[in-house]
Amino acid sequence: MKKQWWHDKVAYQIYPKSFYDSNGDGIGDLPGIISKLDYLKDLGVDILWLSPIYKSPLADEGYDIADYYSIDPRFGTMEDMERLIAEAKKRDMYILMDLVVNHCSDEHEWFRKAVQDPDGKYGNFFYIEDREEGKLPCNWRSYFGGPVWEPLPGRPDKQYLHVFHKKQPDLNWENPEVRREVYKNINWWLDKGLGGFRIDAIINIKKKLPFCDYPADREDGLSCIDNMLAEAKGVGEFLGEMARETFRPHNAFTVGEVFNEKKEEIKDFIGENGYFSTMFDFAETVYGKSPKGWYDSSAFLTPEEYKSCIFAAQEKIGDVGMISNIIENHDEPRGVSHYILPEDLCDESKKLLAGVYFMLRGLPFIYQGQEIGMENTVFQSIEDVDDVSTLDEYRVALNAGLGEEEALKKVAAFSRDNARTPMQWNTGKNAGFTEGTPWLRTNPNYLRINVEAQEKDENSVLAFYKKLIALRKSEEYKETVVYGKLVPFMEQEKNLIGFTREGDKKLLVLANFQKEPRQVALPSEMEKLLLNNLKDLDLKDGKINMGAYQFIVLELR
Ligand code: GLC
Ligand code: CA
């Protein structure tokens, strides 16, 4: 694999609305991010992905863009953005924006013009069809519930397509003018000195046309979009064109939100001449999700399930490209609450989870707050929920016959709001996030879990993340941690996640993913202990007695 500048970096996702509020309006903003750059630099991260900050009605929290060329005033100004890019550069850091081009907002000028004149130029920027009472062009279910079709405002004889929320009309990528507009915008941003993009929901840009029905999979008579996507061919032509016209000439870094890739397509996506630099591994985030909805899905993964997902993903990628690893993001529950049983949630288990995914082959992404072990929040009632997706899943649960309390409990385990509560900086008012009233309720556990306390504690989760990052970047082990081959070790051993990383050194990673102690015989002699989340290492005669949730990395001779 050809080496790239970003391979040995560490990335960090910022959810701007909840990161740091500089002016007391309860909404995080760009000056807030700038004021925390030194914190991020000290943590050791290099690449910062910002969830969308463009002008937006925030129907889907910024993933509904009304103007691709301006910053939403709630987040700041274009000058703030330019300052952020410059300040990041001074610190050898890179800024990524979120590229949301499967759809825009219904408040975008293009859509407004399309509504005025559906048969004109801008009508062809979207998927607009004639409307007949009682019959839809196709029975696809939107990701946020209900059919993908919505009557065009003021034009009851027409309807438009939205695979997400009805305030997110899909852009018609078959129209070359749309693609040209998108590329123009990407280049405009890259010319400003942006490092690149995280690419949102990109597989959806290719629709299976002409519209047709798929077998209904719920009582609503609709069919999950995945069924259509599985048959839509040719997304690669769009992605290849986009890479040629924009990313490649700028040598930009890109990470794709790709869900349904087949093994043989990985090379096209992230191989040497791939459409993107990298893409996320979502194997473990989709595991256990029921086609019926969140209410029917498993709220936790067992260590065995988690292990099978990560090993399968590693095997699938091999050294075709460099995957990106996460345990959470703004669409997922907190990783520590999803992959660790509640009764076992403690600093040791959080460090173990951090260690396991960080030592996989790939680019690690940290989601804001993950580095201090932030957990899922508590929802007292459905009124506490902001996220459109959670509200839909709650309705689905009620329709399936669950009571209100039960439905809330079920969706709370998956709610995207878990990851969107304000960042917990200190024990002050609103966890130090804002002087005003936070837009989303702060997780009440901030007195226990916050940055300030962990910065003073050398055994904190935060301190452990810094050690993981330092190991990844150390001159001695970098080559092996970044490029070394991953070989599973004692894979059949229940609740043990073990693997070696083999490069110019040989490292052994061992995670005792359970409360019960266990003994592990080393495959060869230990050269050096590199990381340990417990105080001591009990090694005798080539055997290690591992304690509850012990995680270690050692160099083998
Ligand atoms: C992606 C985003 C998610 C958003 C959706 C629609 O999945 O991560 O937050 O709701 O796309 O843009
Ligand atoms: Ca603010």
List the topology elements.
Elements: E1 11-14, H1 30-35, H2 37-43, E2 47-50, E3 54-55, E4 67-71, H3 78-90, E5 94-99, H4 109-116, E6 128-130, E7 140-141, E8 149-152, E9 155-161, H5 176-191, E10 196-199, E11 223-224, H6 225-231, H7 235-250, E12 253-256, H8 266-270, E13 278-279, H9 283-286, H10 303-317, E14 324-325, H11 335-339, H12 347-358, E15 363-367, H13 388-399, H14 404-412, H15 451-455, H16 461-473, H17 478-483, E16 485-488, E17 496-502, E18 506-512, E19 518-521, E20 526-532, E21 538-540, E22 543-546, E23 551-556
Helix pairs in contact: 5-7, 12-16, 13-14
The structure holds alpha-D-glucopyranose and calcium ion.
Number of helices: 17
> Level of helix content?
25-40%
Task: Name the bound molecules.
Answer: alpha-D-glucopyranose, calcium ion
Unreliable stretches: none
- Largest sheet data: 8 strands, parallel
User: Could you report the average pLDDT, rounded to the nearest whole number?
Assistant: 97
**What is the overall shape?**
globular
Adjacency order of strands in the biggest sheet = 13-12-10-5-2-1-15-14
Percent of residues in beta strands?
Answer: 15-25%
Rg result:
24 Å
Structure, explained:
- By secondary structure, this protein is of the alpha/beta class.
- It contains 17 helices and 23 strands.
- The chain has helices at 30-35, 37-43, 78-90, 109-116, 176-191, 225-231, 235-250, 266-270, 283-286, 303-317, 335-339, 347-358, 388-399, 404-412, 451-455, 461-473, 478-483; strands at 11-14, 47-50, 54-55, 67-71, 94-99, 128-130, 140-141, 149-152, 155-161, 196-199, 223-224, 253-256, 278-279, 324-325, 363-367, 485-488, 496-502, 506-512, 518-521, 526-532, 538-540, 543-546, 551-556.
- The strands form six sheets. It has an eight-stranded parallel β-sheet. It has a five-stranded antiparallel β-sheet with strand order 16-17-18-23-20.
- Strand 12 (253-256), helix 8 (266-270) and strand 13 (278-279) form a beta-alpha-beta unit.
- Helix 12 runs parallel beside helix 16 (461-473).
- The longest helix has 16 residues, at 176-191.
- The site of alpha-D-glucopyranose (GLC) has 9 residues, from loops.
- Alpha-D-glucopyranose (GLC) binds next to loops.
